[in-house]
Amino acid sequence: MSNTYTPPQIWTWDAQNGGQFASINRPVAGATHDKTLPVGKQPLQLYSLATPNGVKVTILLEELLALGIKEAEYDAWLISIKDGDQFGSGFVELNPNSKIPALLDTTTQVRVFESGSILLYLAEKFGHFIPKTLAGRTEVMNWLFWQMGSAPFLGGGFGHFYAYAPEKLEYPINRYAMEAKRQLDVLDKQLAQHEYVAGSDYSIADMAIWPWYGALALGRLYNAAEFLQVQQYEHLQRWAKQLEQRTAVTRGAMVNRNWGEGQQLPERHSSADFSKT
Predict the structure, then answer these.
(1) What is residue 174's predicted lDDT score, i.e. its pLDDT?
(2) Residue 261: what pLDDT?
(3) Which residues make Cβ contacts (< 8 Å) with residue 56, sequence separation at least 6?
(4) Cis (ω within 30 of 0) for the bond into 8?
(5) Which residues in the chain show pLDDT less than 50?
């Protein structure tokens, strides 16, 4: 390594240091401006963006609607994180952590934030995609919490230093590439023995993991497929492609998307909106 860094006695914030997201990252919480969130006519109000964490929730909502559960209808409002929408007063009231996604259930006036919590809330509310047995439910929760704990190493670790950091540094890229490949191997070995991540049934564990690790396996995350040699994980590849064929997964990946390749649906207020894309 050509450069070394000696930490100062006391850390101070340099607003210009942070790469692509320097303009929105800050060391304090709370709202930066007043902004009321819009509220539509559907029972569920989702405020999100089609990042992997946001896509988890829209996949589940579309899967519930595909089962004919009308109570799962939702308005999906775009939260532009690059423009700082997550620091508006209305959003901070729903999620004091200022991260997408956030959900308001207008039938109960319950706020739900953190993507894993939203998945669990909706699965329990509607009684689908989570097993009813203690053993089955626990296995799904094992993998849901695995994703919640592992993805920050993939996104904030590997993704940041490989794709977004202002300069490429060998040590952090190697460190997090090693961890990303270890995680891919964990999934590959699990999927060698099971059709879905938590067993024989499709569940919220698959919906949580696919937008991160499925997208990575399919070459859609960080432009890192060749670097990480994702094709070698044959069982993960099988699962990623299998889920990709589900209509609800395709639709969920479109909602609150306003950039990049593929179909985009920045806002969604009814199933009819998909016919307009």
Answers:
(1) 98
(2) 79
(3) 101, 115, 118, 119, 207, 208, 211
(4) no
(5) 1
Q: Which of 211, 221, 217, 243 is nearest to 229 (CA)?
A: 217
**275 residue type, one letter:** S
The per-residue pLDDT for range 111-145, each reduced to its tens digit, is 999 999 999 999 999 999 999 999 999 999 999 99
How many Å apart are CA 4 and CA 149, to the nearest integer?
Answer: 29
Q: Which residue, 90, 88, 108, 114, is CA-closest to 44?
A: 108
* 54 neighbors 115 (Cβ within 8 angstroms): yes
Classify 265 as helix, strand or coil: strand
pLDDT the model gives residue 14: 85
The percent of residues in the chain predicted with pLDDT above 70, rounded, is 96
Query: What pLDDT does 19 receive?
Result: 66
Half-sphere exposure of 203 (CA within 13 A, CB side): 24
| DSSP calls for 63-83 | HHHHTT-GGG-EEEEE--GGG
DSSP string, 91-141: HHHH-TT--S-EEEETTTTEEEESHHHHHHHHHHHHT-SS-SSHHHHHHHH
Helix axes 234-244, 170-191, angle to 10 degrees: 80
Sign, CA dihedral 10-16-18-22, equals: positive
Contact between 59 and 72 (Cβ < 8 Å) = no
Q: What was the pLDDT predicted at 21?
A: 67
